[in-house]
Amino acid sequence: MACRLTTQQGGKIKDLTGKFIVFEGLDATGKSTQVKHLAKLLQRRGLTVVTTREPGGTPLGEAIRRILLDNENHLLTPLSELLLFVASRHQLTKEVIQPALQAGKTVISSRYTMSSLVYQGYGRGIDLDLIQQLNAVATTGLQPDFLFLIDVTLAVAINRMIRLSKHGERRDRIETEDIAFYERVQRGYREAASKERGVYIIDGELPEMRIAEQVAAHLDFC
Ligand code: TYD
Fold first, then answer.
1. Residue of minimum CA distance from atom 7 in ligand 1
2. Beta strands 106-110 and 49-53: pairing type?
3. Cα angle, residue 153 at apex, residues 147 and 154 outer, rounded to 5°
4. pLDDT tens per residue across span 150-206
């Protein structure tokens, strides 16, 4: 299907006012780029869009993000790590996501509850039920209306992370985990996506604009 993201008019439009859209995927899969493309598209169609990311998205959440990603914090236990991600998520839900949705805005987030399930659950081995419970409490049960999983092979993800670090981007505390960790995370994403209803999986090895088109097409935006 030909879809022109630059087109300003036309097409059937799904009502995305007050809807919550999430992008998930391994590190360096281009989630934040897709958040930007989608936000631009929706804004051009007159929607008021709020973009955010996890961990972070609020002043407190960004402070928590710095703790979580700081390589100095190698003593952080898996449970402390989980609780910090969940605290950041609760703050974001209460301060940003819920008020924006209630005001009829469209919220787009890079990462949400599925990240904790796969990184802390599959990756670190924390009980999945405990994570689901904490996620439910932190978000007061708020789930995305649309969830896009940008799926790449492990080799591609690892290569992209290596390339980024060669370009001077320092690898953060989580990105310095070994390949076995990322194998578990990768498996986690695929399992979680198959279990959860309504997850739309996109081939993350497609060119950036093709991914953006698939997202738009899934939302009936072209
Ligand atoms: P992010 O900045 O989105 O990394 P990237 O842009 O490379 O995908 O996320 C930071 C790191 O935090 C990333 O390695 C994934 C990890 N993470 C968790 O382990 N659990 C979580 O609940 C979240 C939200 C992120």
1. 27
2. parallel
3. 105
4. 999 999 998 988 888 778 778 888 888 889 999 999 999 999 999 998 899 999 999
Sign of CA dihedral 62, 68, 69, 72: positive
Please name the residue that has the structure tokens 């703790």.
67
Q: Ligand 1: which atom is nearest the Cα of residue 123? A: 19
Q: Are strands 106-110 and 146-151 parallel, antiparallel or unpaired?
A: unpaired
Report the atom number in ligand 1 closest to the C-alpha of 25. Answer: 8
Model confidence, pTM: 0.93
Over residues 40-99, the pLDDT tens digits come to 999 999 999 999 999 999 999 999 999 999 999 999 999 999 999 999 999 999 999 999
Does residue 156 sit in helix, strand or coil?
helix
Report the nearest-CA residue for atom 10 of ligand 1: 55
Helix (H) or strand (E) holding 214: helix 208-218
For ligand 1, which residues put their CB under 6 angstroms from it? 27-28, 31-32, 54-55, 85, 110-111, 115-116, 119-120, 174-175
Measured from the Cα of 174, ligand 1's closest atom is 14
